[in-house]
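Observation: inputs received (chain + zinc ion).
Thought: call the complex predictor directly.
Action: predict_structure
Action Input:
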Amino acid sequence: MSSPLVLPGFVNAHSHTFQRALRGRTTGGDFWAWREQMIAEAERQTPESVRRDYAATYGEMRAAGYTAVGEFHYLGLDEARAAGEAAQEAGLELTVLLTAYARGGSPRFRQESVTEYLAQVEELRASGLRVGCAPHSVRACPAEWLEEIGQYAMDEDLPLHVHADEQLREIEECVAEHGVRPIELLNRTGCLSPRSTVVHATHADDAELDVLADAGARVCLCLTTEGNLGDGFAPVERLKARGIGICIGSDSNVRIDPLEELRELETTARRASRRREVCDVETLLRFGADEGAASLGIESWPDIEIDPQHPSLRGLDHADLLGAVLLGASSDVVR
Ligand SMILES: [Zn+2]
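Observation:
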C-alpha cells in the first residue's frame, strides 16, 4: 500500500452555486438566452434553499478536491449568511464576493446606491465572514460605482472580483458608453491592483491584457462553464506570456472537478499552439491552488490526498504521478 500523494487543496475562485440547478438545461439559444433562465432560478432562491442546496454542492466540491471557494453572490445578505453556514458544514474555506449591481439583471440583485452596497459589505464583514468586493461587471455598474468600490477595496485591502470580456456584446456596449473596453474602464476607475481578479477575460485584446499585467491583477478562467455557454476560447498563452496569474472557477457548476478545469485550460492552449506542455504541471497546480487562494485573500486552506492506487494512477512511476493526476485523471482520485 503506497502512501497517498498530498497536494494543496484546489481553490474554486468563482462559483455561483445556485446555478448548479441549471446543469441539465442544455438546449437552444446563446449566453443571453441562458441568462434569462439563470435569473429565473435566482429569483426562486431563499435563505433556506441556499442553506440546504449550497451545503450539498459545497460537499460535492469538497469531495472533488476543492477546499476553498469564492462565492460570487448576488442573492441577498441572509442568503450570504446561509452560504457561510453551508461552507462551514462542508469544510470549505469561503470568501463571499458580495456583488454590486446598479442596473439590469433582476431587481433582487440591485442596491439603490453604492453607499447602500458598501454598507452591506460592512454588515457582512461585521458578521465574521470573509468578504470581497464584486462589482458585477461594467454592464451592471456605472463608472461612479466602480470608482467608489475600487477605492474602498484598496483602502480596506480587500479582494475585488469583477466579470469582464466574457461576451462580445458587453465589449461593444462598453465602448459605446465609455469609449474604452471593459478592462480599460476598470483600470481608469481604479479597480485593478494585485488584489483584483478579472473573471473570464475571454475576448480581452492585447492592450487589455497589458493593462492587467501592469496592474498585477489576476484572471479567473472558468473553462467548463465558458465551454458550456459558448463564450469563446480562454487566452491562456497570451496570459501566460505576460506573467498574469491565472486561477480557476467552477462558475455555473455544470461540472465540479478541478482536474477537468485545469485539463481544459492546458488542452485549450495546446490546441491553439499545436505543442505540448504550454503550462508545466507545477504551474497548473499553482493555478489550481495558490493563485486562487491569493485571489480570495485566503492564507491557509486544507490539503487533499490523492489515491495513487486508483485505476487512473496505479502502476505509474512516482515521477509521472502528478502529471497523470492533472492530465489523465478525474476528481475521483481524491480520497
Ligand atoms: Zn460568474
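Thought: report the result.
Final Answer: The pocket of zinc ion is lined by residues 14, 16, 72, 163, 199, 251 (CB under 6 Å). The CA atoms of residues 202 and 233 lie 6 Å apart.
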